[in-house]
Design a protein that fits this description.
- The chain is mainly alpha-helical and about 140 residues long.
- It has seven helices and no strands.
- It has helices spanning about 5-10, 20-35, 40-55, 70-85, 90-95, 115, 120-125.
- Helix 2 (about 20-35) packs across helix 4 and helix 3 crosses helix 4.
- The protein is globular and about 40 Å long.
- The protein starts with a helix and ends in a 16-residue tail after the last helix.
Length: about 140
Amino acid sequence: MTDTEFLAAFESAAISSDDWTHRDHIRMAFLYLRDLPWDTALEQIRTGIQRLNRANRVEETAVSGYHETVTVAWARVIAAQLHHHGPGEHFDTFAAANPHLLTKTLLRLYYTRAQILTPEAKAGFVAPDLAPLPDAPAA
């Protein structure tokens, strides 16, 4: 599936929960962050995940559903790597150069489990308690 087809499926919430992988999360964020200003990309990431969750009837509970801190933290890490490697890369090239991004547990470098699992972290962005995240790109 091309990037255009992939984003069209994402934006129309046509990806099933079973097919929506961590790699897909990273790919989607990469594509938005590569092509859009930070604020716009983050909003597209945020609203797209929420729309896809609704379409897949993902229940919003303390441990499932949309998580703001996880979304923002991943976007900042991906944006930092994109900035380091430069724009215009294809996702497969970017992923091969940054295999650590394909590890779901990467945010454990920044957050303790206790910090990331708080209701406050799920509802709004909470700063990390282990190490600072890369700065958000300038708007």
